[in-house]
Design goal:
The complex is a heterodimer. Chain A is built from nine helices and 16 strands. By secondary structure, chain A is of the alpha+beta class. In chain A, α3 packs across α6 and α4 packs antiparallel against α6. About 9% of the residues of chain A have low confidence. The chains are: A alpha+beta, B alpha+beta.
Chain lengths: 330, 482
């Protein structure tokens, strides 16, 4: 039963004071048979009231506002989670039977959401690729594993080539991205084959060997298998997501699970530093913040239209513009 | 005198005319009007028409046409001849709309909570879950008094035998009510004696009823809750209406930048500091209402508003997420909703509708495309529709390709020959096609519909499209007391 102590710091710095910021955090680990939250501290600079609700997908979501002018917004989540492995699927039911059962879920809540793939340009081609990988006799489990491997083998893990809002079409063209993009492609492939699939946001807690996705929040996919339930698949690391993956939220895609997002008024640019570090139960985890050296620095720029406004009138931009901040899952 | 005007008043074949039974006889309920109207000389009528135009222009009663590239702000053409509805017709319409609204409101509550109607397969689940206006963010949100549809504009048309049909349910931010009010004001000035002589019911209570309903929605038990009308601003096509309604009700007209959310409460910025807002009558679409939750690029909304709404600290009128009930693909199932929730037979009929996501129906529609009207399921204002009988072959072929990309986004209806009503055009009465949009208000005390509505007119000769954005005009709408 591994116990992980995770520190997740999101630090926004603004070049000029900003105000009226409204934010949403999905940083509360899912509580179920395989994941127990021992302790969770969520500290936010300025100590705003955090209002928590359960969203449509069952995730705990926190919202808060920061109205006074500020030049920094720091969200510090310290969580201690105990995980236990979910046994792997037996997969002893005939393939046909399993596919039929999945087909019967097509019009059932919640699976309908996880089977419906939004239309994108390359949808027919991706479906063709997916179906060519799957052998006739493959069970959904075998198919899902193959797809995860396909994404791992055919997409290059490169930071910085994609952003929070990169579309599947762009990822397919680039054949590269980070975990968020890998997860989006895998969920699409699974859905197009008739396997319900959802996007998972969380943390990866590696065995000290080093894995992709450390230092930031991680993302992977889940496939729904008959008689088994949801199986975690991490296409970024080509492995089953199990007791080393701590789940924060599930949804259809990144937008449903975005761990930290917000909008504010004023300022033109912000610097976002994100750091996630994982300690183990045998380590002494001191609370000294210098322990966490930011490893990821993203320079987010306002969207192009807003930038144009700036050239015309910086004052109005400052007074009116609404800026967004959001972190990518890597 | 009337004879002079109606010479060559050509009835469209197979069309129900509101005034004339045939080329010689008019309907009884127009007799009072005709008796008085026929005393007017042609010269006088021309003057009155001119006056009407000037009044509209000087009062700035305008709307904006998008995508036209020039002279976008236009006056809404007004026809001086009122459209008259009998009291028994009105009773029928009123009953029908109330029934429909009750069912639609129950549907919204259901679809955002227990989803019984989906589990019982009355409405196909994929129609709902593929609807872009089905907002999962509204799931299990407690809406005050369980009222989702506070204001509805249900579009009615009449077929060749005079039967009323519902063409569209507008349950998001229906517009046009200010024209209903202004049209009456103008008619009062043009024909000061006619209204009392004919026994026309008043529509002027509308702002008062709406205001009373908004007051009753306040989540705070205070004697003078703060009500605001949230407008997207002066570039919106209905900005005239926003200013008019705010003025008539005496509530603040605000834009997104005037409001701020602080700890799940909404405040209005005033010269003496922040003032808590209790009720927002918003004319901003769902997608733009909260950049934190919906379209992040929106500058029209208020960041964090959904948090305050979820918490019950502010009432939003209409509720967020209503688009799932007036989606044109969902429209098909409204009669079934009425039977399911109310155990009643639908009073108002639906126009037969083909779902193009269904391959058989798609095939049928393509084979009979010349007799069909095809619309986008989430479109409005008459934009992006295809009138099969009028479109060129090339337009039809291009439209077909567009449909095939995502058939769920389209529905088709057989072309209905809308009823006609006489309009005063070039010194003569000429028939033009019309529809009717009554405005229903739903508050904690129940549903009320002011007797009247907006009668829209397709001013182009022979046209079947009445939308103001497509060159339509309007008429005053009279509901008679007896």
């Amino acid at each position: 039963m591994p116990i992980f102590k995770i520190k997740h710091i999101t630090n926004y710095k603004y070049e000029t004071p900003v105000r009226d910021s409204a934010n949403q955090v999905i940083l509360f680990p899912i509580k179920d048979d395989y994941q127990k939250v021992v302790k969770h501290d969520l500290n936010i600079s300025g100590s705003p009231e955090i209002e928590i609700f359960i969203d449509y997908y069952g995730n705990e979501v926190g919202t808060f506002t920061q109205n006074e002018p500020h030049t920094q917004l720091k969200i510090f989540s310290k969580v201690c989670v105990e995980t236990s492995p979910k046994p792997l699927p037996q997969d002893d039911m005939f393939g046909n039977e399993q596919w039929n059962r999945l087909d019967a879920l097509k019009y059932e809540v919640p699976y309908i959401d996880y089977l419906r793939q939004e239309v994108f340009e390359g949808i027919a081609q991706l479906k063709e690729t997916a179906l060519s990988i799957k052998q006739d006799e493959d069970t959904p489990y075998q198919t899902a594993i193959k797809y995860s491997a396909h994404v791992f083998n055919n997409f290059e893990y490169i930071k910085g080539v994609t952003a929070v809002d990169t579309t599947i079409d762009e990822i397919l063209k680039l054949e590269a991205g980070v975990c968020q993009d890998f997860a989006h492609v895998l969920t699409a492939m699974l859905r197009l084959t008739g396997i319900p699939s959802r996007y998972v946001s969380g943390y990866i807690c590696p065995n000290r060997d080093g894995m992709r996705g450390e230092g930031a929040t991680h993302a992977w996919a889940e496939a729904y298998l008959p008689e088994y339930g949801w199986l975690g698949l991490d296409p970024t690391n080509n492995c089953i997501a199990n007791e080393n993956h701590v789940r924060l939220a599930v949804g259809r895609n990144f937008a449903d699970c975005s761990p930290v997002k917000g909008v504010y008024k004023g300022g033109f640019e912000h610097i976002m530093e994100v750091n996630v570090s994982v300690g183990y139960n045998d380590e002494d985890l001191n609370d000294n913040e210098t322990y966490f050296k930011p490893t990821e620095v993203n320079y987010s720029k306002p969207s192009a239209t807003v930038t144009n406004v700036r050239k015309q009138n910086s004052y109005q931009q400052y007074m009116e513009a609404i800026q967004q901040q959001q972190q990518q899952q890597q | 005198m009337i004879e002079n005007f109606i010479q060559n008043y050509l009835n469209h074949p197979k069309t129900y005319d509101e005034m004339f039974l045939d080329s010689e006889n008019y309907r009884n309920h127009y007799s009072n009007f005709i008796k008085n109207f026929s005393k007017e000389s042609l010269e006088n009528l021309n003057k009155k028409e001119e006056l009407a135009k000037k009044l509209f222009m000087s009062q700035g009663i305008t709307f904006t046409v998008y995508d036209s590239g020039e002279g976008i702000e236009k006056i809404f053409p007004f026809d001086i001849i009122p459209r008259i509805i009998t009291s028994s017709e009105w009773l029928f319409i009123e009953k029908g709309i109330k029934q429909r609204l009750k069912a639609l409101n129950l549907f919204l509550k259901d679809v955002y909570s227990n989803q019984f109607i989906l589990k019982d397969k009355i409405v196909p689940i994929n129609v709902i879950y593929s609807c872009p206006h089905f907002l999962r963010e509204m799931y299990n949100v407690n809406v005050l008094h369980d009222i989702y549809i506070h204001i509805a504009g249900i579009d009615l048309i009449r077929d060749h035998d005079g039967t009323f049909y519902v063409l569209e349910d507008n349950l998001r931010t229906p517009s046009g009510v200010s024209y209903m009010l202004e049209n009456r004001e103008i008619t009062k000035r043009l024909f000061p004696d006619l209204i009392p002589q004919c026994g026309v019911r008043s529509v002027t209570e509308y702002p008062a009823i709406l205001y009373k309903n908004l007051m009753a929605l306040s989540p705070r038990a205070v004697s003078n809750p703060t009500i605001v009308l949230l407008s997207p601003g002066m570039y919106n096509s209905a900005y005239y209406e926003h200013t008019t309604l705010a003025r008539l009700m005496g509530v603040e007209l605000v834009e997104g930048r005037d409001l701020v959310v602080k700890n799940q409460k909404v405040y209005m910025k005033t010269t003496i500091g922040l003032q808590q807002v209790d009720v927002i009558y918003r004319r901003v679409d769902d997608d733009y209402i909260d950049p934190l939750v919906f379209n992040p690029n929106s500058v029209l909304g208020v960041a964090g508003l959904m948090g305050a709404y979820r918490k019950g600290n502010v009432a939003i009128v209409n509720a967020v997420g209503n688009g799932v009930a007036d989606d044109k693909a969902v429209y098909t199932y409204v009669p079934d909703m009425i039977k399911y929730y109310l155990n009643e037979e639908p009073i108002l009929k639906n126009v037969p509708t083909y779902q193009l996501s269904n391959p058989d129906e798609l095939k049928f529609v393509f084979e009979n495309i010349n007799t069909m009207v095809i619309k986008k399921t989430n479109g409005s204002g008459g934009y992006g529709m295809l009138m099969g009988h009028a479109a060129s072959e090339q337009e039809t072929e291009e439209y077909k390709l567009e449909i095939l990309k995502d058939p769920r986004n389209f529905i088709a209806q057989p072309t209905i020959s809308l009823s006609s009503a006489p309009c005063f055009i070039n010194g003569k009465l000429a028939p033009r096609r019309i529809d009717l949009r009554p405005f229903a208000l739903n508050g904690p005390d129940g549903i009320s519909i002011v007797p009247g509505g907006l009668t829209r007119v397709a001013l182009k000769e022979g046209s079947l499209v009445v939308n103001s954005s497509q060159g339509g005009g309007s008429k005053d709408t009279w509901v008679l007391t007896s």
